[in-house]
Amino acid sequence: MSWAGEIRPLGERSRRALQLSAPRLLLASFAGLIALGTAGLMLLPGVYAGEPLGFVDALFTITSAVCVTGLTVVDVGATLAPFGQVWLLLMIQAGGLGIMSFAALAAATFARRSSLAVEEAAAGPTALLPAGGPLALVRLIVLSTLLVEAAGAAALFALWAPRLGAGEAAWPALFHAVSAFCNAGFSLFPDSLMGFREDPATLLVIAGLLVAGGLGFVVIQDLRFRVWGRKRRLSTHSRLTLLASGWLLAGGTALFFLFEASGTLAGLDVGDRLANAAFMAATPRTAGFNAVDYDEVADPSLFLTFGLMWIGGSPGSTAGGVKTTTVALLGLLLFARLRGDRAVSTGGRTVPEDTLQRAVGLAVGSVILLALFVFALLVSELPARAEGDRAQLVRLAFEAQSALGTVGLSMGVTSQLTPTGRLLVVALMFLGRVGPLAVLGAMAIRGQRRVAMRYAHEDVLVG
Asked: The whole model's pTM is what?
């Protein structure tokens, strides 16, 4: 047995120190990139097409870009000059690639190995990392990102060149392809993609980029190996991710098609209505583009969107939320307990108890954090609320979940927030992007520590 006072070898203490620094490194990396981006937006020449942003609005915009959220208090296309748009796109790309990829590369360079915390935060279970560790992971992330974004940009250019002209379509096509794959949701058009609601090809290309970016690089690699015959079966992680994503997309499309048939999708033909419903099912999973006005959707659609924003994408992806695998594991856990099974299994594999505890912890933590920030926003925006306007509660809750899930959808209140409210949303976007990763890293570290003692058991009544 190992006791707290036992002297450990120097090498083990050094490795423990590296593990302890991983969640802090994650937080510092994102905070540093946000600081750099904000300074660039305020100090670099040629950034603005008109009046420059103040500190709070610049911080809000860059945090939204780095955390690939998409909430904005200004019209990006009209406010930022071409150089400013390039700067914003660089921040989106850096946030989409994930600072933890670079942290894993640094750990591999200076420590010859990546800590468990870095690996778990960057790409889920360490067994799913590509051979070669963090360096191979970074190569996979960069190569996959550039290839998919290039293909998306080419597809959008082909669709938009006849409409905008070849010279005017190139930059928007590249910007929106990167923004879509990174699940950022920033658009150069003042109404996001509402002008393309009768252009199903554009909506489906953007939705395809959103889904690809939200699957996760581990799943992409797993699928690649399966197609090339290097693996006989998909991993349990990939199977759960693909099943959950498929059900959410199919179910969401059907429900939005039903709920909005006489609402925001009325007047469209069946093909356009189906494409818009599919887009509405894809974009709340942390993408942020909108082809309809969410302040006008039916209440069931609003509730469904809220749920999809809470779930988000998949681990190791550009998406946020509590993740599809978390929700899938919670469902499997409930089903197992109702059947009286002690172990949770799927696809002929048993899920480790530690993984189930992390899933429960992330889900509970997300709900508690959301409740706290919704309350704080209600207090901060109280002076701006119109007398008797109870709809403000729904709008602010929607805004808070959109920020925490790094989604970017809004019911139109972002630009109306007070400076305090905007800073609260900045904090939510930051926590929504790095919080789950830092928590998982800390839990992974603690899971490696030996417990010297435990207290006696005593039960507590629940339910």
From this structure: 0.84
